[in-house]
Amino acid sequence: MYAIVSVILGLYLPPLINSFTTLCFAGKGIPNELCRNCSSLPVDAAFFPEAAIAAQWYSVDLGSVLSAESCFGRYPFSSEADRQQCETLFSNDVPNLDMVLTSAVNGDPAQLQFAVLRLIQLVNSYA
Fold first, then answer.
1. DSSP secondary structure, 37-76, as one string
2. Which residues 6+ apart lie within 8 Å of 20 measured at CB?
């Protein structure tokens, strides 16, 4: 599962962000246009606590404990060539991720559902 999530994030996150930031929100506008005159400076990592400290704050504030970080799953590809072949096969079946994600954010999830299921099938074939 870890590998599937990693591959999905690697493939989908950049175009998903692009689809989302160009989507028009009724009464609000398009995020990219709303931020056009804002400064976009990188945020210094010093502003964010270490994971253990953030988990402790969460526990204190909410009275609930987060589960500890753990390794799970195994990498399904025996080589870089296998990973690249899997991505190529996926790209043959789903050639335009931007279109898939744009359809999903505009209320038509069918293409995204197909793409995710196909990716799961392909990755599982290497496991």
1. TS--PPPPGGGS--HHHHHHHHHHHHS--PPPP---S---
2. 31, 105
> With contact defined as beta carbons under 8 Å apart, do 98 and 18 qualify?
yes
* The dihedral formed by the CA atoms of 104, 108, 110 and 116, expressed in degrees to the nearest 10: 10
CA 14 vs. chain centroid, Å, equals: 8
Average pLDDT, the chain: 80
Q: Does the structure show a pLDDT above 90 at 61? A: no
Element holding 35 (H helix, E strand): none
pLDDT at residue 72 greater than cutoff 80: no
The pTM assigned to this predicted structure is 0.51
Supply the pLDDT for residue 52. 82
69-74, long-range: CB within 8 Å, 24+ apart, which pairs? Answer: 72/1, 72/2, 73/1, 73/2, 73/3, 74/2, 74/3, 74/127
- In sequence order, which residues have a C-beta less than 8 Å from that of residue 104 and are 6 or more positions away? 19, 111, 112
How many residues belong to the chain? 127
